Amino acid sequence: MPTRKQQTQRVFLVVVDQTPELKVALRYACRRARHSGGRVAMLYVTEPAEASEWVGVGELMREERRQEAESKLQELSSLVREQSGQMPMLHVREGDARDELLKLLDEEPTISILVLGAGTTSKGPGPLITALTGKYASKLRVPLTIVPGSLADEEVDAIT
Fold it and tell me: The pTM is what?
């Protein structure tokens, strides 16, 4: 059960991936958390291991993906601490990114805002933003903040 402080503290959730817009979304979330007395949470979703005749191979692949996730989160945690003033909350899940994100939002009542960076290519804003602003919009229980992935640090700083 969350404490009273946790219930009133804003938690900005950022989904970690390998896209360039991640850094922009993370900076935005960190600055908003710092200025509002909030905290940053990060979610890293790994792909499930493919079915294999060799159980050991599947487990090895799962473990390698988990280690990759933990390494990336460790790297980003120091950045978050530097920019927000607090260590982030970390979540690692296995499965489909959209489904795991929605499950986490349902399971974790302390998360109050979802922050995603929009892609900068002609392919569109990205699969999560497309899903969460379309077919799955009704599944969100928190506001969604979409940060343009093309913003420079100074531009993010100016709006936070």
Answer: 0.89
